[in-house]
Design a protein that fits this description.
- This protein is mainly alpha-helical.
- The strands form three sheets. It has a two-stranded antiparallel sheet. Strands 3-4 form a two-stranded antiparallel ribbon.
- Helix 1 packs antiparallel against helix 6, helix 3 runs antiparallel to helix 4 and helix 4 packs antiparallel against helix 5.
- The protein is rod-shaped and about 125 Å long.
- The chain starts with a helix and ends with a helix.
């Protein structure tokens, strides 16, 4: 009889400890507002939350890359846009200069303006953004356009390279965020140099073709600008998708880790009631066992 009573008491004490442990777990959830306070609370949920957090960090990095890429491409688009009025002016001057009523002196004055347009085009080609020359390919630490002479150059050399600067904007998704100057500036500057020389030599026959050549360069600028604009739009769409994914992942983590407070409070009350019942049952059992022993 004594052995039986001892076993029953041990079981009741074990159940009491279990009730206390469960109550402590609920109390911790209520106090922290979290379902998972340590990995052992829910190993599977912890693994899911960690995976989602890793994806959140990766997404955050991609959004940072998109910010830098957008900044670079917007700077490039702005530089290309500034070439448009320059080439419009060159075309207007070529049409004017080809008029047979214009004398050599006037053409010389126009040549001086074309030289200024050439210098401006070189300055645009050597645009730097965030400490990097945007049209230089990978050689971003030095100006990519170098005239052979400081005044009235005969050629403008492109000393950059053709390297594409890529950024990862999504999982397995990369984008070139630069335009290399070799695609535009050697031909554009040579058109302006030739135009100036035709003015200085009073070559009316050649001047008649200079307006079309300037217009061809304008078309190339517009083509490149359109390509840059398409890339900026793609970045905007990708950023929106990443932001939507971020919201979904944060909600998923919250569903796993954050406690439902209404549900937790109800459970807390139930656990407190269960513990009180266990305490009462254990106390009565221990009293009865002691009386049995005394008999």
């Amino acid at each position: 009889m004594r052995v039986s009573s001892r076993s029953a008491a041990d079981r009741l004490l074990q159940e009491l400890l279990t009730s206390q442990r469960r109550l402590a777990e609920v109390q911790e959830r209520v106090a922290t507002g979290r379902n998972i306070n340590k990995p052992s609370d829910d190993p599977f949920g912890t693994a899911q939350a960690m995976a989602s957090r890793n994806r959140l960090e990766l997404g955050a990095q991609h959004q940072r890359n998109i910010f830098i890429a957008s900044s670079d491409l917007n700077a490039t688009e702005g530089a290309l846009a500034s070439l448009i009025p320059l080439l419009h002016r060159a075309e207007e001057l070529a049409i004017t200069a080809a008029n047979t009523t214009i004398d050599a002196n006037t053409r010389g004055q126009i040549a001086s303006e074309v030289d200024r347009l050439l210098a401006e085009a070189v300055t645009i080609g050597n645009t730097s953004h965030a400490g990097r020359y945007i049209f230089a390919g990978h050689q971003t630490d030095a100006p990519p356009l170098v005239p052979d002479l400081p005044d009235q150059p005969t050629v403008v050399n492109y000393v950059g390279d053709t390297g594409a600067i890529e950024r990862e904007i999504g999982e397995g998704e990369r984008m070139a965020v630069n335009v290399t100057g070799d695609q535009l500036f050697p031909a554009l500057t040579q058109v302006l140099i030739n135009f100036r020389d035709h003015l200085l030599t009073n070559d009316i026959a050649a001047l008649k073709g200079d307006a079309n050549l300037a217009n061809d360069q304008l078309d190339k600028v517009l083509e490149l600008r359109g390509d840059v604009g398409a890339r900026v739009r793609r970045l905007e769409l990708t950023e929106t998708r990443l932001q939507d994914t971020e919201v979904t992942l944060r909600q998923h983590v919250a569903e796993i880790e954050e406690a439902d407070m209404a549900e937790a409070l109800v459970e807390l009350q139930m656990r407190e009631t269960a513990l009180q019942a266990a305490l009462g049952a254990t106390g009565r059992s221990l009293n009865m066992s002691l009386m049995d022993f005394l008999r």
